[in-house]
Design brief:
The chain is built from 19 helices and 27 strands. The strands form seven sheets. Strands 1, 2, 9, 10, 11, 14, 20 and 21 form an eight-stranded mixed beta sheet that branches. It has an eight-stranded mixed beta sheet with strand order 6-7-5-16-17-18-15-19, sandwiched between helices. The chain has a three-stranded antiparallel beta sheet with strand order 3-8-4. Strand 24 (567-568) and strand 25 form a beta hairpin.
């Protein structure tokens, strides 16, 4: 909107407070003063003062992270050599690691024929050999964990609690400000340079038009803008739109992680520090995890990847079937839900790396392509990229050099290229290509890449989402007749319901028997375990680029995949309805839509912009 806006000057403005920004601000604040606490660099915005550093975070608290994580913590240990896990709630050292292959105990999983033969062989061997093979409760625990997956020298913790601890250290230094509940609308770009950011307008209606109490978003101008707002953040994506992606780079591989924090039942034998990863069930493409934190608390959940082509790929119901697997349920039965959440993960890794720097800006963290898809690690890599940028910024600031593309390339990108983050990213770059061709090909490809340091991998062709997702009729052709699919679709549309429950029921998946503690409805998870809300006065952050396309869409993956049931069937037809009071800001709709954007085939018909609120849970 063409309105008069207030302007504030800063030296460095940062967007998004996660592990990458934690590493950046921790390192930067330590380097801005000498041993006596005197500034070593003067502010250009406020001469005579230390540099003015401000970080804006969309969520209502810096601890509202949505992830229980396991990490080797190399970069974190380097920043905190004397780090004591006991100083951070819900944090402990990794003491035991297990990887389990889950068989299908109910016979409805869509397993390739070769995998079904493998399952039969495992069961037959178990009957014949008894306890001589590691088979129990429809699962096989692997006797060996590949080194590239091992986290035995690391930590498992609540990212929300870790962010709070780091944030308090940063704020306590007095050298940086962190402002939660402050969504940033986008970057300020002038003459090919980023010169700051614009905060989101307040006092607007759902379409963003001025309403009662309208207050234009503040323009914050700075010599350097640090972008760490993640893979679905509006600032990073706007910069990609403005400057494009490097040749050959794209972001087509994603996953949604849906997670719970639970109180384990009395008598559960899993010890604190146990890290358990699973694969093979409820569908072969879905991976699971369970991390045991202090005081019999566990973080657990599943990852549903973009190359799982089911057009009704609901994470929530699949997570409940995963928990009900005999191998897991014997440890979880009687447990209690504490909190719940979901988050999109950018799994293109180095292949999805954008321009890391430009005139006036630098990218760090997951949105910069730092996640390692082979090791299943992202927090430590993100933290380390933040540290590397801070070291480069301090170098430039002390030398009085401007934050140009060339200077940031030399000070930051060169550090990153020479680090373990880059070396391991190269190994992982093509490790998951095989999953675009099939589950078994993907597993073999990961093994080949891991054991050969990336020299050998299973080749695959990366496809855009609208090139991958089949029609419902095609996906269920061997299970549900077309006429039945039509009847189910009509009935769900009439009642305003999504399709996944009806189709999964018809395909043979048993109903979930709710226990009111751990197995609860999706709606109850939103009320009991997520505390989802949005502040008034902001526009809707999920919109459909071409509503006419939505009117003819038959898959409507955005509805089926929505983590918070915020996108629902419109009983009057046309584009789906969006309720931001239920949106957890996972961003799954952005990459699950099966229709291309009208102006860019690399995007979908869903647009995800700056917005308020989201999930309120410090435990995740």
């Amino acid at each position: 909107m063409d309105v008069e806006r207030q302007v504030m000057e800063a030296d460095i403005v940062c967007v998004g407070f996660g592990p990458a920004m934690g590493g950046f601000l921790t390192t930067l604040c330590r380097g801005l003063v000498d041993e006596q606490g005197a500034p070593v660099v003067e502010s250009a915005a406020m001469p005579g003062m230390p540099p003015q550093v401000i970080c804006y975070e969309r969520a209502d608290d810096i601890g509202f992270g949505v992830s229980g994580v396991v990490t080797r913590g190399r970069g974190i240990k380097a920043s905190f050599p004397d780090f004591d896990p006991a100083a951070v709630p819900m944090c402990t050292r990794v003491k035991e690691e297990k990887v389990a292959y889950l068989l299908d105990p109910i016979g409805v999983s869509r397993r390739p024929k070769l995998l079904r033969l493998k399952d039969r062989a495992i069961r037959a061997a178990a009957r014949g050999l008894g306890k001589k093979i590691p088979y129990a409760h429809e699962a096989v625990e692997l006797p060996y964990i590949p080194p590239f997956l091992a986290k035995h020298d690391g930590f498992t913790f609540s990212l929300g609690q870790f962010n709070q601890w780091v944030g308090s250290e940063i704020m306590g230094s007095g050298l940086a400000q962190i402002w939660p509940s402050t969504p940033v609308a986008g970057p300020l770009i002038e003459d090919g340079a980023v010169v700051g950011v614009r905060l989101a307008d307040q006092g607007v209606d759902k379409k963003g038009a001025p309403d009662a109490g309208f207050m234009p978003g503040l323009d914050v101008r700075a010599a350097l803008t640090v972008v760490g707002d993640g893979p679905v953040g509006p600032v990073g994506r706007a910069i990609d739109d403005a400057f494009g992606m490097p040749a050959g780079k794209h972001r087509r591989e994603w996953a949604v992680g849906m997670k719970m924090v639970v109180d384990l039942p009395e008598g559960c034998e899993l010890a604190e520090g146990t890290v358990l990863h699973t694969f093979g069930y409820p569908e072969p493409e879905i991976f699971g995890f369970l991390y045991v934190l202090p005081e019999r608390v566990a973080s657990l959940g599943i990852f549903v990847p973009s190359w799982f082509d089911n057009p009704v790929r609901t994470a929530y119901r699949y997570m409940q079937h995963w928990m009900r697997h005999p191998y897991l349920w014997r440890r979880l039965e009687g447990g209690r839900l504490r909190s719940w959440g979901a988050k999109s993960l950018q799994e293109s890794g180095r292949r999805g790396e954008p321009h890391l720097v430009g005139n006036g800006y630098a990218r760090i963290g997951e949105g910069s392509g730092s996640t390692n898809v082979l090791t299943g690690s992202g927090v430590d890599e993100a933290w380390t990229t933040g540290v590397q940028l801070a070291e480069g910024v301090l170098e430039l600031a002390k030398a009085g050099k401007p934050y140009t593309r060339e200077n940031l390339q030399a000070a930051y990108v060169a550090r990153r290229r020479a680090s373990w983050v880059e070396a391991e990213a190269k190994v992982a770059e093509k490790a998951r290509d095989g999953f675009t061709e099939g589950f078994l090909q993907g597993l073999m490809g990961m093994g080949l890449a891991g054991f050969t340091k990336g020299k050998v991998y299973w080749p695959g062709v990366s496809r855009r989402v609208h090139e991958r997702i089949p029609s419902l009729e095609r996906y269920f052709k061997d299970r549900i007749p077309t006429v039945e699919i039509a009847a189910i679709r009509a009935e769900c549309a009439k009642k305003g319901l999504s399709l996944h429950d009806a189709l999964m029921d018809r395909a043979g998946w048993p109903p979930i028997e709710y226990d009111g503690q751990l197995l609860v409805s999706h709606q109850d998870a939103l009320l009991l375990g997520g505390k989802v809300q949005a502040n008034p006065g902001y526009g809707d952050h999920v919109v459909f680029a071409d509503p006419a396309v939505c009117a003819t869409c038959r898959e409507r993956v955005c509805i089926e995949a929505c983590s918070g049931q915020a996108i629902t069937v419109n009983p009057e037809g046309g584009a789906p309805l969006f309720d931001r009071e239920k949106c957890v800001h996972c961003g799954a709709c952005l990459w699950n839509c099966s229709k291309p954007h009208p102006h860019d085939p690399e995007k979908t018909n869903v647009e995800f912009s700056a917005g308020s609120g989201g999930l309120h849970s410090v435990e995740n």
